[in-house]
Amino acid sequence: MAADDLPIAASERHSDEFPIIVEGLVNRFGEQTVHDDLSLEVRQGEILGVVGGSGTGKSVLMRSIIGLQRPSAGNVEVFGQSITDAEPDEAIGVRCRWGVLFQGGALFSTLTVGENVQVPLKQFYPEIRPELLKDIARYKVMLSGLPEDAANKYPAELSGGMKKRAGLARALALDPELLFLDEPTAGLDPIGAARFDQLTRELKETLGLTVFLITHDLDTLYEICDRVAVLADKQVVAVGTIPELLETGHPWIEEYFNGPRGRAAQASQARDERRKASSSSRSMDKPHKGKA
Ligand SMILES: Nc1ncnc2c1ncn2[C@@H]1O[C@H](COP(=O)(O)OP(=O)(O)OP(=O)(O)O)[C@@H](O)[C@H]1O
């Protein structure tokens, strides 16, 4: 076999192009097989939406990628390092390069928001002095769109939307390159959900993040996702932009995106685009006030 014909091992591929590579993943719980030979590559700098019916294994996939779930078989690499083979302390260098917002925020109820944000900082950088820890936490709280005084509040004192932002602040604590969001807009009202989407997009653009985003929210998929991965039949059955997914003709994809809610989200996105186009053409028509 010529060298060019050799299969390229995941580890030899550019991990800077694909910070997450999942190959042949199998996850079983007793008799139940959740994933069977599942593969997925996440591109650097994209927001990848992950969708699928309830129980198709979206959260188990995320847990396998971040090393909280040891798969029955297969390999997961993050930034070129195998997560599946690594002992917990071996993966420490790579673990500080990602942040996770779990469903419901998963905040410690006995700690203030600021103290919650300090937890990963203390874990990975125990040498940081307390005043600096407080300053970093305050900055992350504000970066997540919360008022500065939210740092001193306890989770029970926050609304659902504020809790999500507090969870996001903690996910951003270590200046991650990869952000995992598990149903970030679930339970938010439509205005709060749209604001959270916008924040995710802005953070992705300003901080250069790659985002793995599990969602059931069609508006989120249309508004901010660069590509969408669809879980069905124990595998990722398709990955691409929404028009590309629709071309596959997969029955679940058809039903999901072309059902009543899918059509409403599509129409809303088309309206947004028309509004943006008309406001940018109006601003181009305006006479310049500067020097003649
Ligand atoms: N630790 C576990 N032990 C046993 N079964 C599990 C475990 N974790 C997940 N499962 C099972 O794996 C399947 C997939 O679960 P998962 O939470 O990943 O689904 P999901 O796609 O995220 O669903 P949803 O959209 O409803 O959140 C479910 O049937 C669940 O019961």
From TrEMBL:
Residues 283-292 have a biased composition (Basic and acidic residues). Gene3D superfamilies: P-loop containing nucleotide triphosphate hydrolases. The keyword ATP-binding applies. One of its GO terms (molecular function) is ATP hydrolysis activity. Residues 20-258 form the ABC transporter domain. Pfam families: ABC_tran (PF00005). Keywords: ATP-binding, Nucleotide-binding, Transport. Residues 261-292 are annotated as: Disordered. This is ATP-binding cassette domain-containing protein. It comes from Pontixanthobacter aestiaquae.
